[in-house]
Every structure is written in structure tokens, then in C-alpha cells.
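Support case: user asked for a sample of complex input and structure output to validate their parser. Sending the pair below.
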Amino acid sequence: MRAAFFGLALTILALGLAATATGGPSTPAAIPGCAKANLNLLEEGQLSLGTDNPAFDPWWSGGSKSKDWEINDPSTGKGYESAVAYGIAKRLGFTKAQVTWTAVPFLRSFAPGKKPFDFYLGQVSNYPERRKAVTFSASYYNVNQAVAGLKSNSISKVRSLAGLKKYRLGASVGTTSYNYIVKYVKPDQSPRVYDTVNDVVTALKNKQIDGMVTDFPSMGYITNVQVPGSTVVGRLPTQGPQEVFGIVFQKGNPLARCVNKAINAMRADGTLKKLEVRWLGQKGAPILK
Amino acid sequence: MSTAILFAIVALVVVRSAGWDEVKQAFFSRQEFEEAFPDILSAFWTNVKIFLVAEVFILVFALAIAVLRGLPGPVFFPLRALAVVYVDLFRGVPTILVIYILGFGIPALQLPGVPIEPLFWGVVSLVLVYSAYVAEVYRAGIDSVHPSQSAAARSLGLTHGQTLRFVVIPQAVRRVIPPLLNDFIGLQKDTALVGLLGVVEAFRQSQIEVAASFNYTPYIVTAILFIALTIPLARFTDWLIARDKRRQQAGRLA
């Protein structure tokens, strides 16, 4: 009797432990070695994140709730990067309320000195030269570049990479888009380079450039909303190593290790794929040969 | 001596600061310097060209404004007022805004026959802004010529125009050469703002290099190039001032 009672108690205890470990059906398992209390954070118990303002679709979505954010509020959880950020936060044990956002222009995201965020998402491409200055997370998105132009311009009929050569192209400063133009399109006229994607969009509207290059997922918003009468000419084929977006950390920040575990878990259980289909899934434009 | 000690102390504080190693790597990397230099140098010629073209127009345009502002009599009030409004406007609006507004705004109007070239509107903006400053420098020079000079010229039968052309302006321009050159050094540096419109000049090229490596050394390269351009001009100004002084004193002694 006593033994039976003891056994029952053990069983209940074991069941209870199992329930705690899985944390209910909606909460994913905590990451081993990444207890919330031991994470290296700017402010204890709080995840301070950064991105550029304005935050554009489809990376950020759901509109703006406050004056501080121009187009989309990163805290909506809507849009690919916002969803990824909250996915990571959840896996590290943070509630939505424990995540705060700071607007940081891209060019300041890698400035030397102490960073005003735990990590930064903003379509930042991870490549070796940059890893000397900051630490990147594992890839949360593999990206293609694309070209957009006005339908009234003959660039919209181009079907090959070589066909782009004779056009005046534009991109924003410090982007892979610019590097792609210089390295692989090698246009006859020197490309124009602007401070922000917004300025590139304005130049396209003004016909100061024939075509603009930026990452493919951003093209939907640009061609459908920002520039009437424009179209995606095509996606640019990957040349050299696959371009990947990484989350930016202060160089050597140990938090990156835990975020990587969260990203890998999200990749393994199909979450990233689901978010990609939900936020970035769009009709494919042709890939230029 | 005291200057040397001060510099030594500042240098020591900087070098021994906690972040020095990171700053040294981020701003003074030899490898990055050598990689970035050729590209930035070739982009720098764009700055030199912008500067040279703009300077010629500024010298002429600003003088015209200064002369308009000095026209006598109530008949010319509208022209005088126009010159005042012009100077107030373009001296008051930050250069960066003038460049943005003209460089993106006017092409957006899609007027037939009006250029949409960013370089064109960049130069036009700099000419408009700096002409306002330089017109004031000219005006100061013109006002500094003693009224007896123009009174004497007029009494010899010269018209107002002739008086300006042969008596007042030659003296005025000589006096204002140092402040004029001062404005031109400012102009040289502001050529970097034309990059906003998409033109790849030295600063934009250095931003491209910085973003490629997340290393700030290319900015130092650009700073050195600008200094290399402005220092000779500064020394030339010093020399002009010294020569002028010498001549004036020589005149007095003779």
C-alpha cells in the first residue's frame, strides 16, 4: 500500500515534470544552456532590439502604432523580420512585452563602440569582411537581388544580365545590391549610389536612373506601392557564395550563440519556412540569365 | 612647448583609453587604407571638377548680386529687394536641403528640356548657396572702398557703372580675396554633399568602402585628400595677404 502510494506519487511528479519541460503545447522547449537569467543583455530581463526606420514591408508589416515609426512598427510581430525576432525572443523565454525596439540607421548599426541594442535585424548581408567588425547570427534568410524599372523604359523588356549593361542603374550605399551591379552587371555607365532605398526609389520615379537593384522580397512593395508604372524586370542569379541575411551583434557578444540555437531550431521545425511563405511568398519574377 | 605637452597628454589619454584598440582597428587600419586609397582618389576628381566649375559661376554670379544690391535710387528698389531676398533665402537654408530639394524636386516635375542630371543640380545648388555668401563678401569689399573714391570718379564724369568697373570693384576685390578664398575652402568640402543625389564622389566612395568592410579607415583617406586640397589654398591665401601688406607698406614708405 505504502509502496503503491509512493509509486503513484512518483508518477504524478514525473508527469508534472514532463509538463513543465514541454511548457504546454504552444511554448517551445527552452534552449539548453541559454537560461534567460544568464543571457548577456543590455538590460536585465529585457531584449533590446534595433532596426532601421522606416521599417519597410514585407520585412515589417502591420502599420505604425506610434509617432516614432514611420511606416511599420517593428513591435507588431507582423512582417518577416518582426516575426523572426519575436520567434527568437519566445524561444529565449521572453514575452512580447519584454522586447523593446530602438530605431538605428543601417550605417550606425556597425559603428564602433557600445551598441544600443542586443541585436539588430535590417536585411544586413553577412560577409567575411564585415565579420571583422561585428558578430553575425546564422542565416535567417537566403536572398536574391532583383532589378526593377519603369514599364515605359526599354529596361523592362530585358531578359538577360548582359542586357542590363547599357542602362543607368542605382542602388543604396553599402549594399550587396551595389556590389552586385559593380561586380556582375558591370554597366557601361557608373551606377548611382544613394543614402537610402527611398532615395533610389525617388530617382527611379524621376527617371534619373533606368533601373534600381535591391533584394527581391523588397521589390513587391516598391513596384506595387511606391512607384506607379514600375515592374520587377527580373531576379538576379546568385553569383559567388549565396547571399544570406544575418542578425548583427556587438563583436564577440555571447548572446549570438543562443540566438543561433533559436534560429536553428526555427529552421529545423519549419517555422522559418512557414514565415517565409507567409510574409515573403510572392509570385516569382523570371531569373535573368 | 606648452602646445607639445598638451598634444602629448591628449595623445596619451586617447591611446590609453579602453576603446583605443577597437578604434585603432576601425579607423587606422593600414591594409584598409591601401585598399581604399586608389578608388577614393579617382572619385575625388569628381569633387575637384564640381569645385572648379562651381567656383567660376559663383565668382561671376555673386558679383552681379552684390552690384544689384548696391544700385542707387528708388527706381532700382525691386532689384535691390530681389538681391536681399535671394541672399537671405540661400544663406538661410542648409546646403544639404537645397541639394535635396533641387536635385530630387526639379527632376520630379518632369519638365521637358529641363535637365535631370544629378551632377547638374548638385552644381547649381552649390552655386546658388555659395553665391549668397560670396555676394555678401563682395558687398563688404565694395562698402569698404572710401566714398571719396566714387565721389572723385563721378566728378570726373564717370557714370555709376564706370565708377564701379574702373574704381570701386578693382579695389574691393583685392581687399576681399582672403575671405573669398575662405569661402572656397568651405565650397571644396561641401562638394561632398552632391553625393546625396547619387553621384559617386570621394565621400560616397568612402561610404561604399566602409560598408563593404564595416571598417572606417576609408573616411580617414577622404579626410586626408580634402586636407591635401585645402592646405595649399590656405597657404596661398596667407601668402596673398602678406604680399598685399608688403605692397601697402611699400607704398606708404615711398
